[in-house]
Design a protein that fits this description.
single chain, 218 residues, 10 helices
């Protein structure tokens, strides 16, 4: 469980489409305050999902080889296959011309964005496929185990780690942070598709391999 949550948490943290709105917010007027609101919304969303999953399981993970345990592994396997399929489909599109995209309404009014809107925007931009994969692992957690508690906390922190780091950097080194943020935005703008292909393919292969291993040994 520990390694699964770390890998999935890293995938959530590195998801470029989720990072882009945060970078735009940080670069906007009163960006640090709105960035903090976005960060809290992102972290709260993950915390709510973890808490909700534990409430459903009552912190009583299904026994190995039981129907719920096998079902969770099958769901994780399907998510992994879905990520691989999406990555390969995106790979075939690399280099092809793209139709122009309309600028989202929230982006045009980003300087006047409220803190509450930033909080709500965060979970809307999260990679829900990866979060669903995390849920299939969280159901195995037992709050009576210190190791499981640490794994859940690390999962939430790692999934938010880049946002937390950039928020702190923008708070204490605003001028340098703005230059760095601009470089990251430029890189993401030029390499979003390639990053998604690599990220989804790597995590998809991991989830498939992990699921098959546990299914074959259960």
């Amino acid at each position: 469980m520990f390694l699964d949550l770390i890998v999935i948490g890293l995938g959530i943290a590195l998801y470029p489409i989720g990072l882009t709105p945060f970078l735009l917010i940080l670069a906007s007027k009163r960006g640090v305050r709105k960035g903090a609101a976005f960060m809290l919304g992102w972290l709260a969303s993950i915390a709510i999902i973890i808490t909700g999953t534990l409430l459903v399981t009552q912190s009583n993970p299904p026994a190995p080889s039981s129907a719920p345990s096998i079902a969770a592994l099958v769901v994780k396997l399907v998510i992994g296959l879905g990520l691989i399929y999406f990555a390969m489909r995106q790979r075939r599109k690399l280099g092809q011309p793209k139709p122009p995209k309309k600028t989202p309404k929230w982006e045009t009014g980003i300087d006047n964005m409220s803190l509450w809107f930033a909080v709500i925007l965060a979970p809307l931009t999260q990679p829900w496929g990866l979060i669903a994969a995390g849920v299939t692992v969280v159901i195995q957690a037992n709050l009576a185990s210190a190791q499981d508690v640490v794994a859940l906390i690390l999962f939430a922190l790692i999934a938010t780690s880049i946002i937390i780091t950039l928020e702190l950097y923008a708070s204490f080194r605003p001028e340098r942070a703005q230059e760095f943020i601009q470089r990251i935005r430029s890189w993401i703008g030029a390499h979003t598709d390639q990053a998604i292909v690599i990220l989804f393919l790597a995590i998809g292969l991991y989830l498939v391999g992990s699921s098959i291993y546990y299914l074959s040994t259960s």
